[in-house]
Amino acid sequence: MAIQARLGLNSCRHDLVAAFLKGSLQQDELVFMFMRYPQDYQQLGADGKPRVFLVQKPVYGLRQAGRRFQRDFFAWLVLPIADGGAGMSQCHHEPCIFVRHAGGETLYLGVYSILR
């Protein structure tokens, strides 16, 4: 907002409501969650112990799901266009600000998340 005010720029805002579902877990990340079983689902394993489920993708209710999306999104933003990315530069002083210069114009992108 400070950049916008200083340079007299217009801005718009977009809300990525289900962005947390688009994140991914790294190979070495193991996430286990307590959850309710679906009705009529077998809650005990063959050994008679309660079943434990390994989370393979960030889901609603996972506290760090937004951060997982942010990690993947930031990597895509700085990836060169030739490699399928957005070709932006990340600001060194404020890592949530990205900049791209093209055709005599400049695009500023600020990314923030609200954790609830």
Question: If you had to describe this structure to a student in words, what would you say it looks like?
Answer:
With 116 residues, the chain is α+β, with helices and mostly antiparallel strands. It has one domain (2-110). It has helices spanning 2-7, 65-78; strands spanning 89-90, 97-102, 105-110. A three-stranded antiparallel sheet has the order 1-2-3, with no helix packed on it. It is elongated and about 65 Å long.
Provide the descriptors you would attach to this structure in a database record.
single chain, about 120 residues, alpha+beta, 3-stranded antiparallel sheet, 3 strands
Secondary structure elements and pairings:
Elements: H1 2-7, H2 65-78, E1 89-90, E2 97-102, E3 105-110
Antiparallel strand pairs: 1-2, 2-3
